[in-house]
Specification:
It is a single chain. This protein is an all-alpha fold. It has six helices and no strands. Helix 1 packs parallel to helix 4 and helix 3 (54-60) runs parallel beside helix 5. It is elongated.
Length: 137
């Protein structure tokens, strides 16, 4: 898989929790009490499966912001079905700590010292000749 394909796949994984929560919210908004029991059970099963697989999803996310967004969505989804997101949340927190420890505190690049310049050495005659053309006009 190419790097861009991997990034796209990881991006989709990170958004899956949020997308599932948003989809369920929209279905509720439009159908509300008309949502069939079969459809409700399908959503609950999808959320439970997502919670069960959440730790493997967390392992594939590489940025703190993606992990934080994923945590928020997991809490929302777990609340929705009365499920337990705690194992996945703890795993995500550990992943964030691991990512932070992998990022070395790099010292800033040193600013190069300006090269010392020798002072310009001009004779009075040379300086006068620079301006002589201006005086003639």
């Amino acid at each position: 898989m190419h790097q861009s394909d991997q990034n796209t796949a990881l991006s989709r994984i990170g958004r899956a929790s949020d997308a599932l929560a948003q989809m369920w919210d929209k279905v509720d908004l439009h159908l509300g009490p008309e949502l069939s029991e079969e459809m409700t059970e399908a959503f609950q099963a999808a959320v439970q499966r997502h919670l069960d697989e959440a730790e493997s999803v967390v392992d594939r996310l590489d940025s703190e912001s993606e992990l934080e967004d994923h945590q928020k969505a997991l809490v929302k989804l777990a609340t929705r079905i009365g499920g337990d997101a705690d194992p996945a949340l703890q795993h995500a927190k550990a992943r964030i700590r691991a990512l932070n420890s992998e990022t070395p505190d790099e010292p800033p690049e040193p600013i190069p010292e300006p090269k010392s310049r020798e002072p310009d050495k001009f004779t009075d005659k040379e300086i006068l000749s620079l301006f002589s053309t201006l005086r003639r006009h």
